[in-house]
Amino acid sequence: MKPSNLVIIMSDEHNPKIMGCRGHRIVRTPNIDALAARGTMFTDAYTTCPVCVPARAAFAVGKYVHQIGFWDNADAYDGSIPGWHHRLRAKGHRVDSIGKLHFRGHPGDDNGFSGEIIPMNIVEGKGDLMGLVRKDLPERGLSWKIAKLAGPGETPYTAYDREITARAQIWLREEASKYRDKPWVLFVSFVCPHFPLVAPPDYYYQYPLDTMPVPKQYAKHERPDHPYLGDYASSFVYDRYFNEEKLRKAVAAYYGLCTFLDDNIGKVLRTLEITGLAENTRVIYTSDHGDNLGARGLWGKSTMYEEVAGVPLIMAGADVPRGKHVRAPASHVDVYPTIMECVGEDVPDMYDGHPGFSLFRLAGGEQPGRTVLSEYHGMGSTTGAFMIRHGKYKYVHYVAYRPQLFDLENDPEELRDLAGDPAYAGALAECRAKLYAICDPAEVDARAKKRQAELLELNGGREAVIARGDLGFTPPPGYPAVFG
Fold this sequence. Notes:
This protein is α/β, with parallel strands linked by helices. It has helices spanning 30-37, 52-61, 65-68, 84-90, 145-149, 156-174, 201-204, 227-235, 244-274, 306-309, 335-343, 359-363, 425-438, 441-458, 462-468; strands at 5-12, 39-42, 45-46, 95-100, 115-120, 151-152, 185-193, 198-199, 281-287, 313-316, 324-326, 330-331, 372-376, 385-390, 393-398, 404-407. Helix 6 runs parallel beside helix 9 (244-274).
């Protein structure tokens, strides 16, 4: 394979089902769809963790969360474990980031990039301290924001994404040509469609309210009864503030933000074409995790359903099959070896216990026969949650609660939990064994909670953290943090 430049585009909280190329009948994502048409889409791809900070730490390092120990939104990546950016920079590659990182961001932290342009990191270098509380969960005081703000308009996030787009266009036009000795990597990281669910009018009004669907299993009698979901919904009480009008506005705004994101991605991809860089530049598009968007009465992230633990993952460029859909499960840990292979650094000294499998090889039809993992140890949960894919089955293991089992081949919407059905006891046992071959969930859960207890104490304890308040969402650079 001939080495080439690489543009990695990451969004924030993009539900993988809400793209035209995934068959969505309403949302408009023509630029993402075109990227998929000229490349390979991994239809069963997963985040390492369904919340921002640990997902982005794991993406940087190319390992699972339990391997690196950045557990939650108050325990951010600090550069102490080398990421792909460190290793490529050390080999003489230019590796720049533009936009959201959600790292610790302390002065002196070396995140491994050659340059960081308008980076967004966790607030005060501390982040979401309330997420450190893992028992007797407090209610999130700013949960009202999603419903109350839903509708048309502009926010600091839409302004930030416009600036990220502009900076990426400028970089491709003015900086890329300076780095000819070795392939460069540009990480372009947007914040949309992450809430607030406020979409610019040009995009919001593409989705008339009377055509907006009601999320699946939204009616209270339809919602699954599982204690893990109960914990989350009783802490993040988002749905308390919704009525029918707000529900439709929220869906329309999310769809609008997806189209807004798509337009920004299109501007970056067109700049590659205009500058002649597209011929020698591969592109990867993904998101840090997905979004519940009201399904089952849940909003935000933090669950293991496909809408949340699943991610869009598309790759295009030289040596990538065109118009191919790969059903073999993929993971964000697979991006690490893919980057190394893309830029010509697929050599032993670039690896150290990395579990990923090259997306080039997956796209080429290889079947690694491995199990992919997503895990969660953060806000709104009292117990560690672990998800694996084993063939057609998705297994979700909770250290303190009963498991869940779904047959994604016959039930892709995860409407029927098979874990309590004796006919599936064998499949349940097989899946459990596959998980335990990767890690011991109880040991990992204990290790995460030990670290969280230490951080909680360092920040004044439970009452001090609750008094500090809920942030709602991290402000971009130049905007103040507003706690409630």
